[in-house]
């Protein structure tokens, strides 16, 4: 259990308070060094109205907007999603209150050395790994019989209830979006949902990014794309940090306080035969302000075969990806090595 003790005793939150120079393992080297710039251009990110998307009289225009967003940027902000601003603020608040607990209280939920579930930071898989400047609480939401309740905080008191309500709403939205994405490609409406399966994996990751003394060399999250089908991000209301890579250039994501930021993951890129892009993104740090976000990952059932939809394969557009099962299992090993897992399934 030594790895667990080492990680938790060196929580990023404690290092930020300590004020000393962070250890070398947090510093980006080589090509990454010296280019961690927070002042990159802002994305003119598409905004999709979920109410218009689900209304027969208005959905054609929103489907077009959705299609354009995920085939160019791979991400969009969604508004009119049926969740009150006050409820989203409550979700943010329980996250902030958890990370504000004493270290002793947070350590009750510490992850085990060989698992990502629970409170902690990066799993150390190699001596050469660059560590992210973030502390996380990582929880399995669904299937419900896979939940490890011992990692679900009892303090704040309303943490469990709030997370449960929030993620139930997101799972409904995920179904709507998977149907809409298929329709935007002129496919059978349930085409992607059928691959997604009856017992999908839904996980939540609460992210806490303390102020960082070296934002020029240290990232909150290293560049990566997601292993999910769809990822939902509740951004911090005030502090930017998320950046997307497009055409070898980084772009900042603007904050729309009561919108949800959605990006497609590698598994939708595979299902869409590369038409929809799973974007590479990273999180930059800053010296002054902490940042709190919540990412929820909707991941196809592990024993389902994920493959490009038949309707998207033709003589002019051949099949670009192999069939794959349990994509997540290969993902984390590649991610910590700084490689793109999707490269392994390209034909």
Automatic annotation (TrEMBL):
GO terms for molecular function: L-ascorbic acid binding; metal ion binding; oxidoreductase activity. It comes from the Eukaryota. The keyword Metal-binding applies. Residues 200-300 form the Fe2OG dioxygenase domain. Pfam families: 2OG-FeII_Oxy (PF03171), DIOX_N (PF14226). InterPro entries: DIOX_N (IPR026992), IPNS-like_FE2OG_OXY (IPR044861), IPNS-like_sf (IPR027443), Oxoglu/Fe-dep_dioxygenase_dom (IPR005123), Plant_2OG-oxidoreductases (IPR050295). The keyword Glycoprotein does not apply. Keywords: Iron, Metal-binding, Oxidoreductase, Vitamin C. PROSITE patterns: FE2OG_OXY. PANTHER family: OXOGLUTARATE/IRON-DEPENDENT DIOXYGENASE. Belongs to the iron/ascorbate-dependent oxidoreductase family. This is Fe2OG dioxygenase domain-containing protein. It comes from Salix brachista.
């Amino acid at each position: 259990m030594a790895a667990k003790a080492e990680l938790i005793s060196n929580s990023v939150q404690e290092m930020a308070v300590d004020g000393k120079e962070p250890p070398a393992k947090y510093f980006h080297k080589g090509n990454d060094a010296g280019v961690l710039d927070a002042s990159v251009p802002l994305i003119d990110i598409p905004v999709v109205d979920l109410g218009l998307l689900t209304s027969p009289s208005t959905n054609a225009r929103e489907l077009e907007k959705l299609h354009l967003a995920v085939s160019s940027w791979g991400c969009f902000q969604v508004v009119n999603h049926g969740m009150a601003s006050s409820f989203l603020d409550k979700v943010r608040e329980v996250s902030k209150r958890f990370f504000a607990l004493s270290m002793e209280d947070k350590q009750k939920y510490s992850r085990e050395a060989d698992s990502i579930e629970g409170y902690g930071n990066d799993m150390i898989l190699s001596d050469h790994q660059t560590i992210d400047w973030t502390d996380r609480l990582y929880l399995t939401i669904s299937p419900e019989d896979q939940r490890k309740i011992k990692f679900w905080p009892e303090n704040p008191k309303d943490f469990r209830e709030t997370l449960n309500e929030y993620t139930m709403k997101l799972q409904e939205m995920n179904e709507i979006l998977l149907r809409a994405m298929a329709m935007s490609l002129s496919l059978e409406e349930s085409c992607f949902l059928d691959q997604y399966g009856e017992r999908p994996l839904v996980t939540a990751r609460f992210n806490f990014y303390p102020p960082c003394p070296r934002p020029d060399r240290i990232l909150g999250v290293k560049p990566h794309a997601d292993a999910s089908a769809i990822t939902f991000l509740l951004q911090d209301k005030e502090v930017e940090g998320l950046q997307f890579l497009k055409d070898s250039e980084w772009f900042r994501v603007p904050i729309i306080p009561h919108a949800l930021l959605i990006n497609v993951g590698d598994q939708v890129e595979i299902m869409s035969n590369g038409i929809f892009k799973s974007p590479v993104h990273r999180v930059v740090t800053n010296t002054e302000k902490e940042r709190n976000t919540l990412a929820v990952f909707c991941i196809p059932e592990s024993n389902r075969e994920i493959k490009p939809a038949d309707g998207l394969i033709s003589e002019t557009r051949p099949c670009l990806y192999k069939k794959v099962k349990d994509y997540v299992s290969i993902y984390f090993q590649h991610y910590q090595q700084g490689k793109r897992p999707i490269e392994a399934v390209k034909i």
